[in-house]
Design brief:
It is built from 4 helices and 4 strands, in the order E-E-E-H-H-E-H-H. The protein has a two-stranded antiparallel ribbon. The longest helix has 22 residues. Among the domains are: about 40 residues; about 40 residues, no CATH class. Helix 1 packs antiparallel against helix 2 and helix 3 runs antiparallel to helix 4. GO terms for molecular function: RNA-directed DNA polymerase activity. It comes from Aphis craccivora.
Length: about 140
């Protein structure tokens, strides 16, 4: 259903009126995540992790009050985290810099949905729909 509103765009101090029957299709991809790697997404050298934990952990801690227990838990948690960071081996990024057209991306999404539906239902019509979408992508 088309909206009956008129969209106004300001460009160069002149308002431009777009008719309501005009459909805009913007083909863009989100930027790849450039977040800092975490130890959860990398390989851990377990020998180094074990050595680091043994070096940093002291078993001679007094646990008489609740405050002592809280401090011991916080220290142990930070020891685990720093050991994980120190023994983490960064993995190579699997991001692809290839730009895929919006039409192709939508076909891929439809094919994935059709495959999921066919795998759940095992109906012949779902399989033929999935095969048709797979052939379109070839």
């Amino acid at each position: 259903m088309l909206m009956k509103y008129i969209l106004k765009i300001r460009e160069c101090d002149r308002p431009v009126i777009i008719p309501p029957y005009l459909l805009l299709s913007i083909d863009c991809q989100p930027l790849s995540n450039q977040h800092n790697p975490t130890p959860l997404h990398s390989h851990i050298n377990w020998d180094n992790f074990h050595k680091s934990i043994l070096e940093k952990t002291s078993l001679k801690i007094h646990l008489k009050t609740s405050n002592d227990i809280d401090e011991a838990v916080n220290l142990f948690t930070s020891n685990i985290q720093t050991s994980a960071w120190e023994s983490a081996q960064p993995t190579q990024s699997h991001t692809c810099n290839m730009i895929i057209l919006l039409y192709i991306r939508s076909l891929i999404a439809q094919r994935r949905c059709a495959r999921c539906l066919w795998q759940r239902s095992k109906y012949l019509t779902d399989k033929s729909h999935y095969n048709m979408l797979a052939r379109k992508l070839k």
